[in-house]
Amino acid sequence: METAKYNLQGKTVVITGSARGIGFAIAEAFAAQNAHVVIVDLARESVDKAVQSLTGKGYSASGQVGDVTSGEVMEALFAAVVAECGGIDCLVNNAGITRDNLLLRMKQEEWDLVIRINLSGTFVCTQKVFRHMMKARGGSIINIASVIGIMGNAGQANYAASKGGIIAFTKSCAKEFASRGVRVNAIAPGFIETEMTATLPEEVVASYAKAIPLQKMGTPADVARLCLFLAADDSAYITGQTIAIDGGLTMH
Ligand code: NAP
Predict the structure, then answer these.
(1) Which of 51, 191, 201, 221 has the fewest CB neighbours in a 10 Å radius?
(2) Pairing mode of beta strands 61-65, 182-189
């Protein structure tokens, strides 16, 4: 078990889309800091598998099946977590998808689905969790955006719009929630080694690797470490920010 570096013991952290990929790495990192993690994902089987893999290592974890786009489902889900754990200290809005296509060929369904899951899902979960955090007068919300939301990308207009929307949404929520003690920040990962990037054509990966000053892809663990910092009191004076974790790909 990793030695705890952040004071997250006893904190409850909900991570959406965390049965696999970056979300699971985030869950594992929080669990290793002695936080209680709640895995949220679409399928019961994958949620149970992820929870078992954490509890098997001696970590504190539970699971909930939930689609981030449903206000009704997420409201009940957060209420159940609060009833079980006493509150929610951190929400990581991580669930996200891609449906890439050049704009002229992009189907309305491809546009709508990406906006619905990535952007509207982040709105739904943030709104529902904020009611609980507001009452507790504290909390940290971390939205997983993307460098594509900053720089755009051919073939990903839907994804770029959803992630750019998340960045603007993060700033607005940070302003609205600050007086209630709730911080909201976004992380913009660059190219991270996951199943999502494994589907990218080789030439696309090669061209991006060339453009990355650190000349390599990042790992889910790199993103997870930034989440720990943004959830902990170590980042108490940081809100409304989008932090790129991209090997220097975007600089401003
Ligand atoms: P991933 O491996 O595809 O995992 C995404 C997870 O979200 C899956 O478990 C998926 O469930 C779940 N999910 C999808 N729709 C959902 C919904 N409506 N409600 C609840 N859960 C849902 O993706 P990833 O690569 O780890 O990416 C995680 C996040 O990082 C995303 O927001 C992505 O945009 C962002 N990101 C990734 C990269 C990268 O390089 N990979 C770079 C920048 C940003 P199913 O398996 O059942 O579909």
Answers:
(1) 201
(2) unpaired
